[in-house]
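Q: Second attempt. The first request was missing the SMILES, so the protein and zinc ion are both included now.
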Amino acid sequence: MKEKLYTIPVTEAFQSDCSCPLCAIRDKLDKDGVDYMMGPSYMEGDIRMETNKVGFCREHYDKMYHMQNRLGLALMIDTHLQEIVKHLEKDKDTLKEGKKGLFSRGSKEKPELLSFLNNISENCYICNKINASFERYLDTVFFLWRKEPSFRELVKNSKGFCFEHFALLLDKGKDALSKENYDSLVDTIVPKQIEIMRELEKDVNWFVEKNKYEHRNDPWNNARDSVERAVGLLAGLDMKDE
Ligand SMILES: [Zn+2]
Ligand SMILES: [Zn+2]
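A: Got both inputs this time. The predicted holo structure:
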């Protein structure tokens, strides 16, 4: 049952007591991605060919660096650096061709070496894997929304979404769902999100007021942690760990 590979984690994320189920799915993919990279995967030739070509983003270098596997990271970086130096040495003169007219300014064509370098800057082996899996999970959310009345109940009873994933559901849902199914999604998640954000704004507003001298003796109500909750919602971060 290939379907279950995706439906079970999606259902579990929506059942869990988290602030955004899609963040929970993403966080799990992220953790698995880093663990996998720092596991025996870096010994596998085809994976190394890919990591040599694209490397990793700043965040994932940081995460891998802080895992206790300096040798594993060294092996990957070693061949990645070799790959970069090899390309630079072989094609460095093509960079100057841009100034000779062959790749004149404004021309869309770029020296291959620049494309190679940009590809490394803009890509990350782990992010690419996470993004591909996340798309499948998102498709599964829409699949379950169409097919499973019990999943609709789960969405109704969830605590809403972080801003990014709320916007993403509305955007992708427009193409993935029929008008009827999309309208019912909108009617389910938008009023709830308005309520959550309105409450949060009230708390943040009281946080601002509470810092004024005239309110120094008034109670905090729910405002004390409102900024961390608001940053959490807007940035999809769990600020409570800080
Ligand atoms: Zn989220
Ligand atoms: Zn990354």
